Amino acid sequence: MPTIARLPDLLISQIAAGEVVERPASVLKELLENSLDAGSTAIQVHLEEGGVKLIRITDDGCGIARDELALALTRHATSKIASLDDLERVASFGFRGEALASVAAVARLAITSRERGAAHAWKLRGENGAEPEPAALMAGTVVEMRDLYYNTPARRKFLKSESTEFAHCADAVRRLALTRPDVAISLTHNGRSLFQLAPADRARRIAEVVGDDFVTASRTVDAAAGPISLTGFAIDPTRASEAKDGQNVFVNGRFVRDKIIGHALREAYRDVLHGARQPAVCLFLEIDPGLVDVNVHPAKTEVRFRDSRAVHQFVYHAIQRTLATPIQATEPAPVNENREQTTVFAEKKPWTSPASTAPTFPPPLRHQGSLGVAEPAATAYLAFAQAAQRPVTTSMGAADAPQFRPEVPVDRDGPPLGYALAQLHGIYILAQNAGGLIVVDMHAAHERILYEKLKTAFDSRQVATQNLLIPAVFSADPVDVAAVEEHADALADLGFQIAPLGPGQLGVRAVPALLQSGDPAALARSLIADLREHGITQLATARRNELLATMACHGAVRARRQLTIPEMNALLRQMEETERAGQCNHGRPTWTALSLDELDKLFLRGR
């Protein structure tokens, strides 16, 4: 019978290294975290052959005393925790005391360090029986790792190509650079300098690491509630891509891959992303260390929250509110020499209609507008209707010449989407604002407006209905007829009155008032199909928004529909007041802008 024996210390460290040291990037991450925990303000990273041949980290941190160098290379030796209470409230990057010992077990390791106030530095090689020896170093610590897996060739075979391993190392450096923008970090590979990051604020560091394009295409996130806060950037849905590696999430400065946060992000972006696009983010979640357990995974890339549901809801609502911000106005840029006025779409501020622009017409009779909302027949929302009603004379001479709107105002403090000019091919609305030209997909925009109104009405159980003068009759299967009879109350809650008119016929007697301009029969068929497939229980939860989105799509103004100038302007004003109006229910953009500078470039003006 085999006897039980204690494993040699070297073998124990090599087994532990299998958890901690997966590849060169794992070593680099652990060493960088030690440098940051040491209070470094500048870190230099030198790599050779993707980090397999050499990883050298030079920092200006507090250093290690001579008598503690040997202890730093032993397992479970750390200066960061001393009790269970410390473990439950870990605020540093590293705390296990395994990294240096594990690296020394599978590579040639050397540490040179000078403690602040010491006469000179000391160097220790990670070999059995080695003693510290005097060395030259101005301040801080230099850790060198050479020949990874030199003594375990079987594991070295699992490493990838040099370019692949270097890519993983570069990612590790960038992630640590994101979490500490106050620290200068440089990276050199095979003698070639890849980047040098000076201390900066967080937005500047994110732009340097992730890219200016990401920052300019993102919305700022800033939310807090009690012991938890969330800051950073979340990609604008219309600028998202299909790349799956664009999520940088940090919890108390630690890069993590957390399923709870990932799910909250997907839910917040659910009805604003098109197709297979992914939500790219760079987010920093700060939480009381006592409410999160970072001692879950040897690589420390996973965490466990004490109240995961609360964290999920906080992240979900923070991102959802950020994406739901109504369309914002843009801050005008200074006037240049070649143009009376130019605008750069940059700094944002909410727009409100000035009191001086309010119409002064007497109270008119109200009618149900063609966009599905109650509109004042004469006021048409704002004073721009007055200009739209003035007669126009053109030089075309033809009786059927198109009538363009005169004297469209260019108000630097006006609404973000400006004022309507015309309709293009019955699909797009062309509008002018202080910045240039606005192009709106009228169906997509109206779809989003209806969708948000339907959600609000459904949540408050105030879905107004519109009775039809003549019921919309359509043929139906017996199963459809049975579904209508079974879910009559649920259909009424949605604003529909559908009744069997025979064994194979259904009649729509009323529809939601918001959708009265849509096809009642098509709306009813879509609704009944969802009821049959998912049932009312699921319909009231996970499937509800999808159903309302389908209803809004059927009820939105269709392409080729001719709108009047007041109707176009009414649609623009509603867009500005609607949450998530930048995307339709399917995630497609609803509008785009061409600045005057961009138009000048198209026509080579000023050249």
Automatic annotation (TrEMBL):
Q: Which Gene3D superfamilies match?
A: 3.30.230.10, Histidine kinase-like ATPase, C-terminal domain, MutL, C-terminal domain, dimerisation subdomain, MutL, C-terminal domain, regulatory subdomain
Protein's UniProt name: DNA mismatch repair protein MutL
Taxonomic source organism: Azonexus hydrophilus
Q: Which domain of life is it from?
A: Bacteria
Q: Does the keyword Nuclease apply?
A: yes
Q: Which InterPro entries match?
A: DNA_mismatch_repair_CS, DNA_mismatch_repair_MutL, DNA_mismatch_S5_2-like, HATPase_C_sf, MutL/Mlh/PMS, MutL/Mlh/Pms-like, MutL_C, MutL_C_dimsub
Instruction: Select a single GO molecular function from the record's annotations and give it.
Output: endonuclease activity
The family annotation for this protein states: Belongs to the DNA mismatch repair MutL/HexB family.
Keywords linked to the UniProt accession: DNA damage, DNA repair, Endonuclease, Hydrolase, Nuclease
Q: Name one Pfam family in it.
A: MutL_C
Question: Which PROSITE patterns does its entry note?
Answer: DNA_MISMATCH_REPAIR_1 (PS00058)
